[in-house]
Every structure is written in structure tokens, then in C-alpha cells.
Amino acid sequence: MPQRGLILFAHGARAASWAAPFERLRDMTQARMPDARVALAFLELMTPQLPELAAQLVADGVAQITVVPVFLGQGGHVLRDLPLLLEQLRQEHPGVAFQVAGAVGEDPTVLAAMTDYCVNAAGDAA
Predict the structure, then answer these.
(1) How would you classify residue 12: left for phi > 0, otherwise alpha for psi between -120 and 50, otherwise beta?
(2) What gap in Å lies between CA 114 and CA 121, rounded to an integer?
(3) What are phi and psi for residue 45, nearest 5 degrees?
(4) I want to staple 26 with a disulfide (CB 3.0 to 4.6 A). Which of 40, 45, 57, 111 is the partner?
(5) How wide is the angle at C-alpha 19 spanned by C-alphas 18 and 22, nearest 5°?
(6) Domains, the chain, ordered by start
């Protein structure tokens, strides 16, 4: 079992189909990180939620977990909710190293890829 875990952390929605691109992202990430356990957790409305998924990874022997917020920006969920959840996880699992990345949408490479998509979409419409 990998000692390293990566949790993609998304908001969640009522429609089950909403999770499909996040599941593809999880699968594509896992393919590039075969030595780690890559999983997908949600803040609300969908399961698994972050606390239960982290507990499962810890029970499986994962000792280092990085959480990547799959959000476009640093809104209230990333600025307020996620730090509270991480504080709770650190208290519940003191032997595990938890790290948090910035919101994926704030990364310059991600923004460049989104810009390319938007420009190409406009070109396709012309």
C-alpha cells in the first residue's frame, strides 16, 4: 500500500453527473502517480467527504496526505471551511503529515490551459 496519498477536494453537487470530470481527473492523476493513492473527496452533497476519506487512507497505512482543492479560486470554502477540516484531521490523525495545495484555478499553468480552451472555443465559433 502506498505511504503517500493525494486527495482531490471538490465542492460536490446534487447531480451525480457533476462528479464525472473530477473522477476523470482522479483517474488521470492516479495514472501519473502509480506510487501514491489518489482519491476524490467532496465538501458537501456527495460522498466520500474529506474526513471519512482521510480516515480511510490513514487506516490503509497512508502517512502523508496532500489535499488539492479543485476549486477555481480561494473562496470561502477554501479560505474558511478547508482549514477547519484540516485542523480537525490533524487532531484526529496526529501521526499523519497533511499538506494543502493552493486552489487549482489559481495556478498560472492551469489558467493558461483554460485561456487556450477559451480562445480555441471562440475560434471554433467563428
Answers:
(1) left
(2) 10
(3) 70, -15
(4) 40
(5) 125
(6) 4-125 (3.40.50.1400)
Can you tell me whether residue 98 is helix, strand or coil?
Answer: strand
DSSP code per residue over 3-68: SEEEEEEE---SSGGGGHHHHHHHHHHHHH-TTSEEEEEESSSSSSBHHHHHHHHHHTT--EEEEE
pLDDT of residue 125: 60
Cα separation, 57 vs 113, in Å, equals 31
CA distance 4 to 46: 24
How many angstroms separate the CA atoms of 10 and 69, rounded? 6
CA 86/CA 98 separation, integer angstroms: 8
pLDDT for the residue 71: 87
Instruction: Tell me the pLDDT tens digit for each residue of 30-63.
Output: 999 999 999 999 998 899 999 999 999 999 999 9
For residue 67, count CB atoms less than 10 angstroms from its CB and return exposed for 0-12, middle for 13-18, buried for 19 or more. Answer: buried
